[in-house]
Amino acid sequence: MGERAVEQKVLVAPGEGASVWLGGIGVDFKVPADLTGGAFSIVEHPLEPGRLVPPHIHHREDELSYVLEGRIGVRIGDAEYEAGPGTYVWKPRDVPHTFWNPGPEPARLLEIIWPAGFEQFFARLGELAQTVPQDEFPQRRAELAREYDHHFLHPEWVDDLKARYGLKLLGEE
Predict the structure, then answer these.
(1) How far apart are alpha carbons 2 and 6 in whole angstroms?
(2) What angle do CA 61, 84, 53 make, to 5 degrees?
(3) How far apart are CA 60 and CA 45, in angstroms?
(4) At what angle do helices 119-131 and 137-147 cross, to 10 degrees?
(5) For residue 10, how many C-alpha atoms fall within 13 Å in the half-sphere facing its CB?
(6) Residue-by-residue DSSP string for the chain
(7) Are 98 and 56 in contact (CB under 8 A)?
(8) In what order do the strands lie in the sheet with 26-31?
(9) Cis peptide, bond prior to residue 92, ω within 30 of zero
């Protein structure tokens, strides 16, 4: 077997890549689908203390998070965990999950999504967050999510987690 020349990008520098802010969590796009032939994508999520990502389920992709900084809480199905720096968190497709930063420090996750494609939901959600009136945002977010076979569910988890950890959902004041 012969060698081949590398004709594509092979390094992503710190601070490189587009970013969107979603009211308590950022999405920093690091390794896009076109770089991996659609096999996977990688984003980083800076997460403010006291923020809760709405519980949801994906039917097309799996996610693997790696905690870079801070601590996060996660609920995957009926189990709840806490994860600190150096911990991997597996969020398989077809299993409801959520995560949050119990604080007091910011957290940052590296997230591998496969197959690639779902990262475009974050990009489009960032556009919605900038252009849609706040009172229309939840409905428009749900409509966009359905295009990716991604669904928000388990409002009872939200009430419980907010009460136990003093959290706010993304975008709440």
Answers:
(1) 13
(2) 45
(3) 20
(4) 160
(5) 4
(6) -------S-----TT-S-EEE-SSBEEEEEE-GGGTTTS-EEEEEEE-TTEEPPPEEESS-EEEEEEEES-EEEEETTEEEEE-TT-EEEE-TTS-EEEE--SSS-EEEEEEEESTTTHHHHHHHHHHHHHS-TTTHHHHHHHHHHHTTEEE--HHHHHHHHHHHT-EETT--
(7) yes
(8) 19-21, 26-31, 41-47, 107-114, 62-69, 88-91
(9) no
From CA 94, how far away is CA 74, in angstroms rounded?
16
**pLDDT value, residue 27:** 98
For residue 56, which phi and psi values (nearest 5 degrees)?
A: -155, 175
Cα angle 33, 36, 39; round to 5 = 80
Residue among 170, 152, 137 at smallest CA distance from 57: 152
Whether the pLDDT of residue 1 is over 80: the answer is no
Q: Each residue of 81-104: pLDDT tens digit?
A: 999 999 999 999 999 999 999 999
* pLDDT tier, 173 (very low <50, low <70, confident <90, very high otherwise): confident
